[in-house]
Amino acid sequence: MTAALAAESVVREFGDGDSAVRAVNEVTLSISPGEFVALVGRSGSGKTTLLNLLAGLDRPSSGKVWFEGRELSQMPERDLVGLRRDRIGFVFQSFGLIPLLSAFENVELPLHIAGMSWRDRRRRANEALDLVGLTGRSGHRPYELSGGEQQRVAIARALVADPSVLFADEPTGELDSVTGQTIGGIMRDIGASRGVTVVTATHDLLLADMADRRLQMADGSIASVDGAP
Ligand SMILES: Nc1ncnc2c1ncn2[C@@H]1O[C@H](COP(=O)(O)OP(=O)(O)OP(=O)(O)O)[C@@H](O)[C@H]1O
After folding, report:
1. Domain boundaries defined on the chain
2. What digits encode the pLDDT tens for the residues 126-146?
3. pTM for the complete prediction?
4. φ, ψ for residue 31 (rounded to 5)?
5. Which atom of ligand 1 is nearest to the CA of 170?
6. Residue 51 alpha carbon, nearest atom of ligand 1
7. For residue 154, with 0-12 CB atoms within 10 Å meaning exposed, 13-18 middle and 19 or more buried, which class applies?
8. Could you give the C-alpha distances from 65 to 13, 78, 184, in angstroms and in order?
9. How far apart are the first and last CA of the chain?
10. CA separation (Å) from 125 to 55, 111, 130, 214?
11. Which of 81, 85, 207, 89 minimizes the C-alpha distance to 156?
12. Fewer beta carbons under 10 A from the terminal one: N or C of the chain?
């Protein structure tokens, strides 16, 4: 079976000379389709940098990254943009919703940009909002929603184009622990029911505990792995 994501001897350095920082250091990994993986580790250990490399948002200094069997490091930027639009969903700590748009409008925006018809947009946005349990809140703007509800809108937006991989960078970082667990549960359940691979970088041990596998990072490397592949 082709891995959803794979990396071989991936290195990412920032700067050069004396000020060079090796944020990711010789990482090799393989993540199966539908797996839920958490990158954990201290601040500065390289979680976000690795997440960005796996998502094709950044390119390695050396080494290779594969997304569903396609090698990303040599892929032209135009193809990477298409891949990110069609195959990948992103969720961030700060939700990233557009304040003037309702929850529904935030969720259907990526489909609008992709040129989908209004009928299909409406159906898919409503389905995505149902999936995260926000059916009754679709007309609300972000400031009328709690932090947890805003993150649910962000998850619905990330899933509306039916991606195969969801990347979440500190998705519970601005939430209390109970709300964080609800969000973690939604990510896990949606991943399992729709076969979406989920990769999250997190300091939240409760969220990490929900993952199938935890990759513990230290100084840019994977120091240990906990959980079955
Ligand atoms: N664009 C950049 N330019 C220079 N150094 C960078 C850049 N991005 C990250 N770094 C450095 O790379 C290292 C790893 O950073 P990264 O953000 O990946 O860690 P992290 O584990 O996600 O940290 P946190 O948990 O605080 O978000 C850090 O030393 C950081 O300062």
Report:
1. 34-57+84-226
2. 999 998 999 889 999 999 999
3. 0.94
4. -120, 125
5. 27
6. 18
7. buried
8. 15, 17, 26
9. 13
10. 23, 9, 9, 31
11. 89
12. N
Between strands 36-41 and 197-201, the pairing is parallel
What is the mean pLDDT of the segment spanning 180-196?
Answer: 91
> Which CATH architecture is the domain 34-57+84-226 placed in?
3-Layer(aba) Sandwich (3.40)
Band (85; pLDDT cuts 50, 70, 90): confident
pLDDT at 193 over 80: yes
How far is CA 43 from each of CA 34, 47, 202, 219, rounded to the nearest angstrom? 27, 8, 10, 10
Centroid of ligand 1 to alpha carbon of 10 (angstroms):
15
Rounded distance between C-alpha atoms, residue 96 and residue 173, angstroms: 13
* Structure ipTM: 0.97
Which amino acid would we find at residue 60? P
Give the amino acid at 139. G
Beta-ladder partners of 7: 29, 65
Q: Whose CA is nearest to atom 8 of ligand 1?
A: 49
CA distance 97 to 87: 20
C-alpha separations of 54 from 16, 24, 76, 179, 193 in Å: 23, 12, 16, 27, 23
Crossing angle (nearest 10°) for helices 103-113 and 147-159: 20
